[in-house]
Amino acid sequence: MTVELGRYGIWRHAGGLTPDLARDIEALGYGAVWIGGSPPADLELAESLLDATERVAVGTSIVNIWSSPAAEVAASYHRIEAKHPGRFLLGVGVGHPEATSDYTRPYASLVAYLDALDADGVPVEGRAIAALGPRMLRLAADRTAGALPYLTTPRHTRESRDLLGEGVLLAPEHKVVIDTDPARARAVGRPFVHKPYLGLRNYTSNLLRLGWTEADLADGGSDALIDALVAHGDAATVAARLAEHLDAGADHVCAQVLTEGYADPLPPMRALAEALGLG
């Protein structure tokens, strides 16, 4: 692993990321900015965030293999790496079947995509894959720098580390709401879990595998499920929740800081950074 991510980063959908926000995230001491959603193959947003900053790493979480041709992604990777060496991690994945009409043989298709990245010179240490189940986790260990699990818990992190072994990047995403009122925090966090993820079978299968029940997944998710997937409370409480992933074997945690409506995410990011001891 050659990209230095630090222990904590910020995950945010591409539509909510700007160069100015990336500069602020870097100034707060976070080690990485993760571009959520399915950024296009030109990777122009990643380049603009790197152009605007000096040290913070930028990763994609994730480029969707069905909509972004490997050859174009590889060319973008090399352009960015030449300009900002050692600061970009290419995250790729298969997405989910409900969103893609071409979703067939996902494992074999991802293997073929990695083969194409190999052929175009994208190094193993410069890429990672979205991985939840054992087969994808093993592929992450065999063919990339590591795994980028999404919508998981420290239990999944612990089981993933046991499967991956040491020396393989493990960087789970975890949603957070800085709010000491549980009902209000759940009201903010639940929509980001319910739609679309509780309707997508790769995520629901993983949650069931982790011991949650169909009842937990119904009607927008039980309070217990939401509390597990969305860390909430004051900044110190949330920081302790994120640290559980590190204790379980994660190398880096991607915090998705949620706010009500379109509220400015910077104040809770700042409070969390202080509680994490960053900066």
UniProtKB/TrEMBL annotation:
Gene Ontology CC, one term: cytosol
Specify the Luciferase-like domain's residue ranges: 20-108, 129-252
User: What GO molecular functions are on record for this protein?
Assistant: oxidoreductase activity, acting on paired donors, with incorporation or reduction of molecular oxygen
Q: Which Pfam families match?
A: Bac_luciferase
Signal peptide span per the entry?
A: none
The family database entries (NCBIfam families) matched by this protein are listed as: F420_MSMEG_4141
Q: What is this protein called?
A: LLM class F420-dependent oxidoreductase
Q: Which organism is it from?
A: Pseudonocardia hydrocarbonoxydans
